Amino acid sequence: MKETPLSNCERRFLLRAIEEKKRLDGRQTYDYRNIRISFGTDYGCCIVELGKTRVLGQVSCELVSPKLNRATEGILFFNLELSQMAAPAFEPGRQSDLLVKLNRLLERCLRNSKCIDTESLCVVAGEKVWQIRVDLHLLNHDGNIIDAASIAAIVALCHFRRPDVSVQGDEVTLYTPEERDPVPLSIHHMPICVSFAFFQQGTYLLVDPNEREERVMDGLLVIAMNKHREICTIQSSGGIMLLKDQVLRCSKIAGVKVAEITELILKALENDQKVRKEGGKFGFAESIANQRITAFKMEKAPIDTSDVEEKAEEIIAEAEPPSEVVSTPVLWTPGTAQIGEGVENSWGDLEDSEKEDDEGGGDEAIILDSIKMDTGVEVSDIGSQDAPIILSDSEEEEMIILEPDKNPKKIRTQTTSAKQEKAPSKKPVKRRKKKRAAN
Amino acid sequence: MVTQSVRSARCRAEVIIAAARGVGAMEEEMHTDAKIRAEIGTGCSPRGPGCSLRHFACEQNLLSRPDGSASFLQGDTSVLAGVYGPAEVKVSKEIFNKATLEVILRPKIGLPGVAEKSRERLIRNTCEAVVLGTLHPRTSITVVLQVVSDAGSLLACCLNAACMALVDAGVPMRALFCGVTCALDSDGTLVLDPTSKQEKEARAVLTFALDSVERKLLMSSTKGLYSDSELQQCLAAAQAASQHVFRFYRESLQRRYSKS
């Protein structure tokens, strides 16, 4: 679907409001929207909501052979998908620019910063390493996809547990989750992206732009930082020219924001860990707020299936037996058999009208009599009535056979009416040829 | 204000209503149910007192961009559905007298493959049977499904989520539909709403889509070996289960739209 264009008055309104330091949702310039993190029942699954922007993250692992030039390191794979439900404009072919940009930024932020210890993912050097795959799905687009995605990725990685492996000499044992508790990944630090949107050629700045603000912004600055105030990635796009002190100021703001977000993430992880240990209920079902009017829950419902046997027997007894279909194959010659009669050829009408035109034409038009599917007997009858029939040389031409006692011209009108009666089947012509050979 | 339809004296479903509503009326029924509940496991023999559906939950209108959205949870299986429509359609895909329905199913891990395509087709055929497409010719109705977690009965959960999302979007339909999965294990025991472990160990897994008006069959997708009579038994059990699912739909919509 095409993206609805932003009207001029909306654009002007947004820009004027920003000039007066006002945001549509009432936030201050440096305020983030509410971040909500919920975990699923499997390890490594989480949903992050940044305001209304929602991202689903899932981490999975697999044992593979390592890359040739990095024989002792595990492999990390990131994939961000902009689901079609996130915005009507996200169609499979259409979002390549944005998708590539986001994916690349995410990779630089997480892979190049070496936040995951890839050496610890090695099982047997040069042969088997863990490949960690992070799949992120954008479920709702309300601006600032990159921040939400980076939070979802790092939370999912922190939450994930991989199966335990032990190596004894040459023997490698992979334990299932039931045998031994899965182990977490070794994560050095948590890089989080913070986005700054610039308006009016860099005069005004907003942190965490929402979708409307993103539409009217001039440029975007993304700084990925961890709580130790180390910059992991920095990217400025949109062609705005920033001054040095602007960038420094942004990095200071980013430092503060990242500290807050990291604390939130650690608290959420701890809560989930506690609930799992205590054996309480965890998962997405618990995160559905009970008080919301749009949410509803129902406990386990028993179903009375005591009468299903009787019902089933009734239905089977009342049902008609399936119609007799000729399912036995008929062998014409060695190597040629026929099962069934085939469907009526609906090109027949077209053939008729064409053939009526070329009366003097080479091939005679011959029309088959309609035969019902369950009377295989008629097949042999027609065969015995065979008068000399001119068969066309051309394999492509549709062959239709005259009833010997009827006049061709008469047949044409009759068979068109027969066709109007919707005869159920027509014999395939090639079979007729073979039959003659057999006869 | 919740109307309960009671199928038989022995079978009642317990429904947890929000604290805002009075729980008093439900309590008497809870006592009689206590006996039945003690016998219930997740499996049962065809003649047993009853199989059970897992814990259900549904949240509607949780996404701001799609016209309608719903998140449906069955036990640990969770599917998020978003609906856009009726909306603009590409000229190549438009149908002159009805709406073009498109279903997209995205798995959680990896790229979508052939299994997703076939499930999309099954869901699309079910939706096309109920959606009144002729009211919106030359438009498109897109249903996007995202698997949030898969713990058994995935296709049924997708169908349920799609139905709730279509209702939330206000797409005109002639009936609601629901999905129910049955699994038959090696000794012929019927299990409704199986978990992934039960599905793996089952001899046959059957999924049915049923409509709400007369509980007729809209779609069936089966895998495995089963006999004629077992098929009819599973279908009858699915019809019994669909009563509960439709009651769940009705109550969740009542909660949302009623004035009290």
From TrEMBL, chain A:
GO CC terms: cytoplasmic exosome (RNase complex); nuclear exosome (RNase complex); nucleolus
Annotated InterPro entries: ExoRNase_PH_dom1 (IPR001247), ExoRNase_PH_dom2 (IPR015847), ExoRNase_PH_dom2_sf (IPR036345), Exosome_comp_Rrp42_subfam (IPR050590), PNPase/RNase_PH_dom_sf (IPR027408), Ribosomal_Su5_D2-typ_SF (IPR020568), Rrp45 (IPR033100)
GO terms assigned for molecular function: mRNA 3'-UTR AU-rich region binding
One GO BP annotation of this record: exonucleolytic trimming to generate mature 3'-end of 5.8S rRNA from tricistronic rRNA transcript (SSU-rRNA, 5.8S rRNA, LSU-rRNA)
Main subcellular localisation: cytoplasm
Transmembrane segments: none
Exoribonuclease phosphorolytic domain: residues covered: 32-163, 189-254
Biased composition regions of type Basic residues, renumbered to the chain: 425-439
Domain of life: Eukaryota
Cellular localization per UniProt: Cytoplasm; Nucleus, Nucleolus
Family classification: Belongs to the RNase PH family.
PANTHER family associated with the record: EXOSOME COMPLEX COMPONENT RRP45, EXOSOME COMPLEX EXONUCLEASE RIBOSOMAL RNA PROCESSING PROTEIN
Record's subunit section: Component of the RNA exosome core complex (Exo-9), composed of EXOSC1, EXOSC2, EXOSC3, EXOSC4, EXOSC5, EXOSC6, EXOSC7, EXOSC8 and EXOSC9; within the complex interacts with EXOSC3, EXOSC4, EXOSC5 and DIS3. The catalytically inactive RNA exosome core complex (Exo-9) associates with the catalytic subunit EXOSC10/RRP6. Exo-9 may associate with DIS3 to form the nucleolar exosome complex, or DIS3L to form the cytoplasmic exosome complex.
Name of this protein: Exosome complex component RRP45
Lineage: Eukaryota, Metazoa, Chordata, Craniata, Vertebrata
UniProtKB/TrEMBL annotation, chain B:
CDD domains the record matches: RNase_PH_RRP46
Cellular-component GO terms for this entry: cytoplasmic exosome (RNase complex); cytosol; euchromatin; nuclear exosome (RNase complex); nucleolus; nucleoplasm
Domain of life, source organism: Eukaryota
UniProt subcellular location: Cytoplasm; Nucleus, Nucleolus
Keyword DNA-binding: yes
Keywords, ordered alphabetically: Cytoplasm, DNA-binding, Exosome, Nucleus, Phosphoprotein, rRNA processing
InterPro entries in the record: ExoRNase_PH_dom1 (IPR001247), ExoRNase_PH_dom2 (IPR015847), ExoRNase_PH_dom2_sf (IPR036345), PNPase/RNase_PH_dom_sf (IPR027408), Ribosomal_Su5_D2-typ_SF (IPR020568), RNase_PH (IPR050080)
Occurrences of domain Exoribonuclease phosphorolytic (ranges): 53-172, 176-240
Primary location group: cytoplasm
Swiss-Prot/TrEMBL GO biological process terms: defense response to virus; DNA deamination; nuclear mRNA surveillance; poly(A)-dependent snoRNA 3'-end processing; rRNA catabolic process; rRNA processing; U4 snRNA 3'-end processing
GO molecular function, one term: RNA binding
Subunit record text: Homodimer. Component of the RNA exosome core complex (Exo-9), composed of EXOSC1, EXOSC2, EXOSC3, EXOSC4, EXOSC5, EXOSC6, EXOSC7, EXOSC8 and EXOSC9; within the complex interacts with EXOSC3, EXOSC8, and EXOSC9. The catalytically inactive RNA exosome core complex (Exo-9) associates with the catalytic subunit EXOSC10/RRP6. Exo-9 may associate with DIS3 to form the nucleolar exosome complex, or DIS3L to form the cytoplasmic exosome complex.
Family: Belongs to the RNase PH family.
PANTHER family cross-referenced by the UniProt entry: EXOSOME COMPLEX COMPONENT (PTHR11953), EXOSOME COMPLEX COMPONENT RRP46 (PTHR11953:SF1)
Protein name, UniProt field: Exosome complex component RRP46
Source organism of the structure: Macaca fascicularis (Crab-eating macaque)
UniProt lineage: Eukaryota, Metazoa, Chordata, Craniata, Vertebrata
Gene, per the UniProt record: EXOSC5
